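Lab notebook: predicted structure, single chain.

Context: the supervisor wants predicted structures on file for every construct in the current expression panel, including those that have not yet been purified. This is the next one on the list. No modifications to the sequence; it matches the entry in the shared construct table.
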Amino acid sequence: MSKPKRLHPIAIFFLFFASLKELIFPIIAAFVFGRGASSWDFPFTVYFAIAGLIIFSIYGYLKWFTFTYEIDGDELKIKQGIFVKKHRFIRRERIYSIDITAGLLQRLFHLVAVKVETAGGGNEPEVVLTAVMKEDALHLRKQLLEVSIESEVTEVDFQNLIEPIAKTQWKLSNQYLLFAGLTSSGIGIAFMAIIALATQLEDWIPDQYIIDTFGYLFQSSLAGIIIMAVIIVLLSWVISFSGTLLKYGGFIIDKKGDELEITRGVLEKRQLTLSITRITAIRVVESLLRQPFGLVTVYVESAGGGSKDEQLSTVLFPLVRKKELKDHLREVIPDFAFEQPIEPLPKRAKRDM
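Prediction complete. Output recorded below exactly as produced.
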C-alpha cells in the first residue's frame, strides 16, 4: 500500500487553464451581451478580469489540493471533489492500457500526463493525472500493469523465472513516415477546417474587402479561380503532411513479453503500454491515396476501446506494405499473423444488391 499522493503543484496552472477553456465562451458572451457596450469602461473591465483570474486560480488550487491517488493492493484509489467528495476504486484487472504523454508545457517542467484506460470505460480515459513526475508515472504503470508471479504461475518453474524476457523492437522508418504524410487522408479535414476558419473570419474582415475579393474572383478568368482552389488544396495538404509528421515521428514499438510499449510524437511525446492479451482484433485500413501503392494502416482493437482521433482504436503500424503485413504481425503480435482469405460474393447475389 502506497501513501496518497497529489499531482505536481504545476498542475494548478493546468487545471486553471482547463477551467478557463471550458468557460471561455460563456465569459465572452457575458462580456459582449451581458451589459451595454458603453458600460464596459476601463475600471469595470479591469475589475472583471482580475476577479475572474482570482476565482479560477482559487478553483484550480482547491481542485489540486482535494485530488489524491494511491495504489492499495490490487486497486487504484482516486479521491477528489471540492464540495462533493468522490471516491473511486479501480481494480487492476480492469485496466488494459496506460498512456503516458508529455506536451510542450509538461516537458518544460520534466513532467508527464498519465491516462488510465479501463475495459468498459467509454470514450474517455477512466483517470487522467495531468502532471506527475516521470518516475512516478513509470512506477504507477509497473504496479498496475505487471501481474505478480504468484497470481499467474500455478507451478513454479525456476528455469522460467530466471529466463530474461524476450524483447522485440519495430520502428517506422523515415521513408515510410514521409510517405505517410504525403498520402495522409487528413487533407480533407484540413480543407474543411480552412473553410470553417474563413467563414469565422467574416465578422472580423471589413465588408468592402470581402465584396472586392469575391468581385475580383467572379470577374477573373477560370484559370484564376482554379489557381485559388489549388492554393487552398496545397495549404490543406501542407497542414495534413505536417500534422502526420508531428504525430507519428519517432514511432517505435517495444515488445517486452506480453506487453507492447508504443512511443510516438515530436512535439507531444506519447507512450502507450498495451497488454497483448487484451487485444481482441486488428483493423486494416486502405485509404484511397494508398491503395495504388499497396500500403495500409493497421489498428488494434482492445478491451475498452481507444482514442477518439483513431476511431476508438490504437494505431499499431502507421504505414506498411500490404504484402508484408503478415511478417510485421508475426514480429509483434504473432497470434494475429494468419492468412486472411477474401472470397467474392456468388454471382447470384447480384440480384439482391
